[in-house]
Write a structure and sequence with these properties.
With 211 residues, the protein is an alpha/beta fold. The protein contains eight helices and eight strands; from the N terminus they run ββαβαβαβαβαβαβαα. The chain has a single domain, classed as Alpha-Beta Barrel (TIM Barrel), CATH 3.20.20.140. It has an eight-stranded parallel sheet with strand order 1-2-3-4-5-6-7-8. It is globular.
Length: 211
């Protein structure tokens, strides 16, 4: 099974193998319905203008739904129009939710890795942190792994970063790509010099969090 841990494209044929990232504006409609599938939802650092205490309370309610596998994508981005203090404030609220509800975080991080690693060191989270769409160099990958984060790779990736990422910490995603998830798995398996079936972190995540 090819598990896509982060996709913005919903397809009925992929239900059960994809964690679809739900826009906040659509989340209540989905979680009030009987729509099948696995989902993640969070406050993206680009769009913090939609944040409200009421929506945060609704997120807490949605996390009780077994279809909600992860919180995110959320995180920090140097290109966001919101200052870093505001980004950290709202990200920390989602860290709190992740910890209290035992849900992994799907993390968006651009140019703010020092802040991310400092947060992780200070907060000492027990839940899984996955940096999605990782394209960084192996030096950054090594820092992230040492900090206790896992990495998710999509269509474009640094091969050396994939090589040094342990199988248990390596996730795979399509994000917004049209490339089939199976093709991305095959590309990464070639770099890792392993069988596609050995890339099992996504399957283990679903097994643990979709009960």
């Amino acid at each position: 099974m090819f598990v896509d841990i982060h996709s913005h494209k919903f397809a009925v044929d992929d239900i059960g193998t994809v964690i679809y990232n739900v826009p906040i504006a659509k989340a209540d409609t989905i979680f009030c319905s009987d729509m099948k599938g696995f989902f993640s939802v969070g406050f993206h650092p680009w769009y913090l203008d939609v944040y409200s205490a009421e929506l945060m309370d609704m997120m807490k309610m949605w996390t009780d739904d077994s279809r909600l596998i992860a919180i995110g994508e959320c995180g920090l981005d140097k290109n966001s129009k919101f200052d870093i203090e505001r980004q950290i404030e709202i990200f920390e609220k989602q860290i709190n939710l992740s910890e209290s509800k035992h849900k992994p975080l799907i993390i968006h991080c651009v140019g703010c890795y020092n802040e991310l690693f400092d947060l992780r060191k200070r907060r000492k989270p027990q839940q899984l942190w996955i940096i999605h769409g990782f394209r960084g160099k192996p030096q950054l990958a090594e820092q992230a792994l040492k900090a206790g984060c896992s990495l998710s790779f999509g269509e474009h990736f640094n091969e050396d970063s994939v090589r040094i990422t342990p199988i248990d910490n390596l996730y795979i995603e399509t994000d917004e790509s049209d490339m089939p998830i199976g093709d991305i798995y095959e590309k990464i398996a070639m770099v890792k010099k392993c069988a596609v079936e050995d890339l099992c972190a996504g399957r283990e995540l679903l097994k643990k969090h979709s009960l």
